[in-house]
Design a protein that fits this description.
This protein has 195 residues and is an alpha/beta fold. The protein has a domain of 122 residues: Transposase Inhibitor Protein From Tn5, Chain A, domain 1 (Alpha-Beta Complex). It is built from 5 helices and 8 strands. Strands 1, 2, 3, 4, 5 and 6 form a 6-stranded mixed beta sheet that branches. It has a two-stranded antiparallel ribbon with strand order 7-8. Helix 4 packs parallel to helix 5. The relative contact order is 0.13.
Length: 195
């Protein structure tokens, strides 16, 4: 229905199946417009990071990816789809300026990570082998795109309470606001966040 006729539908299929086309090329124009709107503003800018699931009804998960396995009372079914971690740019007044970074993935890439957590302390698994890497990737991409890290305040929910993210933000010279899930040491180490 979005394409309105078969010729336009066929063109869309060809476009999306072309190996030379990926999301970075499709979104490049949007990212450039976001950068222009950012440059036209002054003062601090909020960079909101969060993950969204796109779920689709499919008989087989292989062509699209698997989100989770839901075990019900009478049967189990697989939720198929993909995940998107995005970084939305807002002024402090709440005016959206656009997206500065987007990362798509499926759980297939990280297959076995949850099983490994049961055997190994999760802090011993390198961040590059966890889905959590998306936080670091998007902080780096959005900070690079905007080009003025001192103006940016990256905001994440408690899933972003990752030591590597704090280090990445500090190395980039940017700011962050994270809802913590661990009572971490603060200041010079003589106090914690909750005190």
């Amino acid at each position: 229905m979005a394409c309105q006729d078969w010729a336009a539908t066929k063109a869309a299929y060809r476009f999306f199946s072309n190996p030379l086309v990926d999301e970075s090329l499709i979104l490049a124009g949007h990212f450039a417009a976001t950068k222009a709107r950012f440059d036209a503003t002054s003062g601090p800018i909020l960079v909101l990071h969060d993950t969204t699931e796109f779920s689709f009804k499919r008989d087989r998960s292989e062509p699209i990816g698997k989100l989770s396995l839901i075990k019900g009372r009478h049967r189990a079914h697989t939720v198929c789809g993909l995940l998107m971690h995005s970084s939305l740019i807002l002024t402090t007044e709440g005016t959206p300026l656009g997206l500065a970074a987007v990362k798509f993935w499926t759980r297939e890439k990280f297959k076995g990570t949850n099983a490994l957590k049961k055997k190994v302390n999760p802090t011993r698994i390198p961040i590059e082998q966890k889905e959590s890497i998306r936080w670091l990737v998007n902080v780096a991409r959005s900070t690079d795109l905007l080009g003025n890290p001192a103006r940016c305040v990256h905001i994440g929910d408690r899933e972003s309470d990752i030591f590597e993210l704090f280090c990445a933000a500090e190395d980039a010279g940017t700011h962050f606001l994270v809802r913590t899930c661990v009572d971490r040491l603060a200041g010079r180490g003589g106090t914690t966040i909750s005190k």
